[in-house]
Amino acid sequence: MVNTPPSPDPSDILVVIPTLNEAAYIAGTLSQIIEHDPVAAVCPVIVADGGSTDSTQNIVKDLSARFPNLRLVHNPGRTQAAALNMMLEDAYAGAKCLIRCDAHAKYPPNFVTDLVSALDDADAASVVIPMDAIAENHCFQRGLAWISDSKLGAGGSPHRGGVASGYVDHGHHAAFRMSVFRDLGGYDTSFIANEDAEYDQRVIKSGGQIWLESKIRIGYYPRKSARSLWKQYAKYGQGRAQTCLKHRIKPKLRQLIPVVHVVLLCLSLVLVPFTTLGLIWPLLYCLIVLAAGAATALRHRSACGLFGSVGLAVMHTAWGLGFLAELIRNVLGTKAQ
Fold first, then answer.
1. Residue 10 C-beta-side C-alpha neighbours within 13 Å
2. 24 pLDDT exceeds 80?
3. What is the pLDDT of residue 316?
4. Residues paired with 105 in a beta bridge
5. Beta strands of the chain (E only): which ranges?
6. What is the pTM of this model?
7. Which of 3, 8, 112, 299 sits in a 20 to 30 Å window from 53, CA-based?
8. Apex CA 53: angle with CA 49 and CA 56, to 5°?
9. How far apart (Å, rounded) are the C-alpha atoms in residues 32 and 63?
10. Would strands 172-177 and 97-100 be described as parallel, antiparallel, or unpaired?
11. Residue-level pLDDT at 336
12. Given CA atoms 248, 169, 10, 27 in this order, what sign does their dihedral have?
């Protein structure tokens, strides 16, 4: 006789979805989460909107008639970190498990139920999950999706396309044990990005563990333009620098590579007027990313794969510049004091 694990108590669970101008995705996201999970169909599902100027709020209000457990609340802090920290308020004091969902993603059936079970089974402070890049019928997005989870695109990060479960030091946030989240004061809302990695640092320092559950996976939609991708990755680099500075830790090798790339580009600009040696790194780098884009196009039999070259160049350069800019700001700020 097989023992069936008890179903999670919906009254113990909070599902939070931060939004800001997600009209294109929010209806599908809510449907995937609520309609295909018996726990998510009953537990509070809260859309914390940061002041959307599109139809996101109206869509959620309309769907609340269809999903009685769905609530729309205003997030005055606007950011994802501020949205999650709203769950520290007294109104949510009874919650034992917090589930973080992103509007810009695709979710499997029983997502909430499986996360709560994984949190209990691992006896962890948090459960993180892998993300698999997916794309709609948009050529730049498709090329970016095909290459962003590769070694060149993600640097081998275990939550970007990873297939092995285990305890990790960071991953894509999905489930929190609320007692730990409260004790640590939630996210640091002063961070422009990387607030999740900064939180993970505090979890580990407090003696907690973070479990990566590879069987629970979500799809995420990459940006559709080089400009929006640049803004995203510049913030990522800046946020990582903030984490390194706050906790006095060194960036990992995969995080140092885009920083070194930017430094070499800057040195090349200085050398080019005086010697052709200044062209070595720009030319070598161009060959690397062009070869990666061409290989992606051939593998998927689509010219859209060539946009992967553009995506790599944007991600590496924007991340590195964001990281260095934050370091410089910190140094100048320290000197000013």
1. 11
2. yes
3. 97
4. 220
5. 13-19, 45-49, 70-74, 97-100, 105-106, 126-129, 131-133, 166-168, 172-177, 210-212, 218-220
6. 0.91
7. 112
8. 55
9. 13
10. antiparallel
11. 59
12. positive
